[in-house]
Specification:
Its EC number is 2.7.1.39. This protein is of the alpha+beta class and 380 residues long. 34% of the residues lie in helices and 24% in strands. It is globular and about 60 Å long. Bound molecules: L-homoserine.
């Protein structure tokens, strides 16, 4: 199955198998380091043919998936990147006490109050939906699996909270069985979850699984391009999250139904500049392109109290660019050094309070080039 998927992806089976094993060389061609595609019609995730039940390789295994910044301004639904410091962890364990082939969520832990809203029903919970998709793809029939989810990301924050849970679960279950699914099959499993809980978009779950910057070139077939930001160049994300929830479904409902030709041309050119800036490691151009969304940001900004003033404060404090992170309410600013990032974050927090009446918290992050990874495992 992995070999077949790899053939579609134009990458070798060995590089397409386990993401925790696969590490692209930073010296590889920047644009096409990973170019993988899978047809949603032919994907193993929807196949019903019988094949051997895969044997588990571990009794339990934990995976971490990072926060993500989606859209990056003009890249609505097709550009996103992973950022370090924040994320979710899922442990998948063989459960001898439950019926073979079943999945349960035994516990959800978190220091964040919003996580008390999460359901332990695997058909509703993001981690559960993605884990079930992976179990279906692998045709797991002989063992039951139980998940524990540790939420590090607040819900509805614009930091890819649902995608991080889905990505960590997909990778944990896949790796429990030795990692037979390809990266794009894992993203596809995560997309099943995104579709159910927030909307059909891979700009969070793609980078949460693959790391770095990811361009979703196509959804049918799913085709993902990783864009390598050059090693050795500093890129700092200032993530300022106000005390305010903006559910992605609600923020998507606010989007314009039509786009004018003028706005299409403007946003397309900015998105193309953004891709060039990533590949060149040009933080100034990257920030300027991120700041230039003329379609989505103007319709969502009024729904986030203080957003316009926070962006102004970030740019005045020296950020190269600023926009809404994902569907918001987190606002992301870019700069090229951590110290500047801290200063910009303080100004943005002040502006959220003075302009929007909201308390906010700033986190200064770097690019997470790795994506979802195994952090612990127990052999059989
Ligand atoms: N592209 C999605 C949106 C990302 O903006 O609705 C949500 O995090």
């Amino acid at each position: 199955m992995a070999a077949a998927a790899a053939a579609q992806c134009n990458i070798s089976p060995s590089t397409s198998r386990s993401h925790s094993i696969y590490r692209p060389s930073p010296t590889h061609l920047r644009l096409s380091t990973v170019r993988c595609c899978v047809s949603l019609q032919t994907s193993s995730l929807t196949s019903t043919t019988t094949s051997p039940d895969p044997p588990p390789h571990f009794t339990s295994l934990s995976a971490f998936a990072p926060a993500t910044v989606a859209n990056l301004g003009p890249g609505f639904d097709f550009l996103g990147c992973a950022v370090d410091s924040l994320g979710d962890t899922v442990t998948a364990a063989i459960d001898p006490a439950s019926p073979p082939g079943s999945l349960s969520i035994s516990s959800i832990t978190s220091d964040l109050p919003s996580s008390s809203k999460l359901s332990r029903d695997p058909h509703v919970n993001c981690a559960g939906i993605a884990a079930l998709a992976v179990m279906r793809a692998l045709r797991v029939r002989s063992v039951a699996i139980s998940l524990t989810l540790h939420k590090g990301l607040p819900l509805g924050s614009g930091l890819g909270s649902s995608a991080a849970s889905a990505a960590a679960a997909a990778v944990a279950v896949n790796e429990l069985f030795g990692g037979p699914l390809s990266l794009s099959e894992l993203v596809h499993a995560g997309l099943e979850s995104e579709k159910k809980v927030s909307g059909y978009h891979a700009d969070n779950v793609g980078p949460a699984i693959m790391g770095g910057f990811v361009l979703i070139r196509s959804y049918e077939p799913l085709e993902l391009l990783r864009l390598n930001f050059p090693e050795g160049k500093e890129l700092v994300f200032v993530l300022v999250s106000p005390d305010f929830e903006a559910p992605t479904k609600k923020m998507r409902a606010a989007l314009p139904a039509d786009v004018s030709m003028k706005d299409h041309v403007k946003n397309s050119s900015q998105a193309a500049a953004l891709v060039a800036a990533v590949l060149q490691g040009d933080v100034r151009l990257l920030g300027s392109a991120v700041s230039s969304d003329g379609i989505v940001e103007p319709t969502r900004a009024p729904l986030i109290p203080g957003m316009v003033g926070v962006k102004k404060a970030a740019l005045e404090a020296g950020a190269t660019g600023c926009t809404i992170s994902g569907a918001g309410p987190t606002v992301v600013a870019l700069t090229d050094c951590e110290e500047k990032g801290k200063y910009i974050g303080e100004r943005m927090v002040e502006a959220f309070l003075s302009e929007g009446g909201l308390k906010a918290k700033a986190t200064v992050s770097q690019l997470d080039r790795v994506g979802a990874r195994v952090i612990d495992k127990n052999a059989l």
